[in-house]
């Protein structure tokens, strides 16, 4: 990670904007397992943290040529 800098980043939302309610993509059991492993690894390293924000992004896996994620 880059060094910590004295800059706060924020995203200014459009007043009155609301998140789009949409069901998440369905994941195969192998994708769910991979997702759990990647989330745990990134959380353990301190790269990500839990969030209760209504705004989010979908997860979409694309297999590499060797078949791994």
Automatic annotation (TrEMBL):
One of its GO terms (molecular function) is RNA-directed DNA polymerase activity. Keywords: Nucleotidyltransferase, RNA-directed DNA polymerase, Transferase. InterPro entries: DNA/RNA_pol_sf, RTL1-rel. This is Putative reverse transcriptase domain-containing protein.
